[in-house]
């Protein structure tokens, strides 16, 4: 049995429009919480792709990441089960696209909210993670890293992409 540490890799979007931030309210094992549109990175996608997918699934808004805010790590212990989880979060900001009317939100998402920075600070006790405010603060301080700061080898897309990459390298 392996005791290897395996943090949960998540992606999150900090989306601002007219001085308000797109947030979600979701049911968790800890109760009703406020979070950025966020979720787990899926196999076969880059962190930026995962962030765009999660934003759409949780808010019904299209989102295109244009900058990395940062990579964050936090540890959480569930009060209900005692489970100890470490989250490694890639947070992005970018361009808000169209709202997809009628699109159902992910299971557990109660609603979306547009909140000011002051409202977010005032509700810190209801945040799903301390990273909600840290990402907000980095955004407000103007932190913007290029998307290229996260290198994604083509192998993440599966064996087919490795074959294509090898064929290109061999033809060069």
Describe the structure.
By secondary structure, the protein is of the alpha+beta class. It has a single domain (8-171), classed as Nucleoside Triphosphate Pyrophosphohydrolase (Alpha-Beta Complex), CATH 3.90.79. 24% of the residues lie in helices and 38% in strands. It has a four-stranded mixed β-sheet with strand order 5-1-7-6, sandwiched between helices. Strands 2, 3, 4 and 8 form a four-stranded antiparallel β-sheet that branches. β3 (20-28) and β4 form a beta hairpin. The radius of gyration is 17 Å and the shape is globular. Mean pLDDT is 92; it is low at 165-172.
Classify the oligomer. Answer: single chain
Approximately what portion of the residues adopt beta-strand conformation?
A: 35-45%
| SSE topology string | EEEEEHEEEHHH
CATH topology call = Nucleoside Triphosphate Pyrophosphohydrolase
In what order do the strands lie side by side in the largest sheet? 5-1-7-6
Going by CATH, the homologous superfamily would be Nucleoside Triphosphate Pyrophosphohydrolase
Largest sheet: 4 strands, mixed
What distance separates the N and C termini? Answer: 44 Å
Structural class: alpha+beta
Q: Give the number of DSSP strands.
A: 8
Low-pLDDT regions: 165-172
Radius of gyration, in angstroms, nearest whole number: 17 Å
Mean pLDDT, to the nearest integer, reads 92
**Which range best describes the helical content: under 10%, 10-25%, 25-40%, 40-55%, 55-70% or over 70%?**
10-25%
The dominant shape is globular
The tally of helices reads 4
Q: Kindly provide the name of the CATH class.
A: Alpha Beta
């Amino acid at each position: 049995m392996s005791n290897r540490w395996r943090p949960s890799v998540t992606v999150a979007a900090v989306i601002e429009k007219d001085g308000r931030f797109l947030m979600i309210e979701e049911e968790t094992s800890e109760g009703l919480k406020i979070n950025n549109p966020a979720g787990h990175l899926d196999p076969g996608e880059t962190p930026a792709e995962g962030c765009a997918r999660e934003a759409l699934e949780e808010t019904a808004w299209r989102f295109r990441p244009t900058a990395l805010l940062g990579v964050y790590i936090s540890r959480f212990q569930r009060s209900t089960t005692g489970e100890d989880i470490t989250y490694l979060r890639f947070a992005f900001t970018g361009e808000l696209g169209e709202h997809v009317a009628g699109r159902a939100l992910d299971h557990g998402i109660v609603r979306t909210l547009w909140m000011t920075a002051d409202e977010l600070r005032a509700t810190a006790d209801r945040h799903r993670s301390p990273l909600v405010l840290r990402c907000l603060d980095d955004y407000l301080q103007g932190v913007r890293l290029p998307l290229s700061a996260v290198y994604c080898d083509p192998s993440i897309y599966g064996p087919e992409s490795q074959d294509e990459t090898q064929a290109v390298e061999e033809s060069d």
